[in-house]
Write a structure and sequence with these properties.
single chain, mainly beta, Jelly Rolls, 6-stranded antiparallel β-sheet, about 35% strand, xyloglucan:xyloglucosyl transferase activity
Length: about 220
């Protein structure tokens, strides 16, 4: 998806592009799967926060956050979710910023057993989005406008009767990072990552989750 974010004072707003599956009773139920791009607005002159997360089987709490190396409000940029059976890769302008590897065999939940639908939104989250909720939306700046274009999808076909999907053979089904991709993701994470749940020892005093201890760029 190509997105141009809310310009000017965007504090309190969240612009999203994500894929999600949830049960009919609760968007955060035990069947909830989701892969998120969320863009947290800020007061004029301060950078957006790109918030990423992965939910599987109702379990999230896998946030990584970044500042971007460009102004995302002045032009369209491309945000990509690559999700196959082996890993999830988040990309910005075809530069990988995050990889979440399938480690189900080691007990780490990974979305793989149900379909996802595609969503985008622009909503008011000023109770938490900007500087922990300290900066609220200034409604004198409304309307807040984000623009989307050139959406492209390459997807497997879900068959509800068999609870499975069929895919045409293609490289994306096994796509990972080559040496150049690993170099790019190291560059992004060393210079632009501002929060990583895997480094939050206050949040995980008994030890970080299993996937944090493994190679990050499999």
């Amino acid at each position: 998806m190509q997105i141009k974010l809310v310009a000017g004072n965007s504090a309190g707003t969240v612009t999203t592009f994500y894929v999600s599956h949830h049960d009919q009773l609760s968007s955060q139920g035990s069947n909830h799967d989701e892969i998120d791009f969320e863009f947290l607005g800020n007061s004029s002159g301060n950078p957006y926060t790109l918030h990423t997360n992965v939910f599987s089987q109702g379990k999230g709490n896998r946030e990584q956050q970044f500042h971007l190396w460009f102004d995302p409000t002045t032009a369209f940029h491309t945000y990509t979710i690559l999700w196959n059976s082996q890993r999830i890769i988040f990309l910005v302008d075809n530069i990988p910023i995050r990889v979440f590897t399938n480690m189900k065999s080691q007990g780490v939940p990974f979305p793989s057993k149900q379909p996802m639908s595609i969503h985008s939104s622009l909503w008011n989250a000023d109770e938490w989005a900007t500087q922990g909720g300290r900066v609220k939306a200034d409604w004198t700046n409304a309307p807040f406008v984000a623009s989307y274009k050139n959406f492209k999808v390459e997807a497997c076909i879900w068959k509800p009767a068999s609870a499975s999907s069929t895919c045409s053979p293609g490289a994306r089904q096994t796509q990972g990072l080559d040496a150049a991709g690993r170099n790019r993701i190291r560059w992004v994470q060393s210079k632009y990552m501002i929060y990583n749940y895997c480094s939050d020892l206050k949040r995980f005093p008994q030890g970080v989750p299993y996937e944090c201890k493994q190679s990050r760029f499999l």
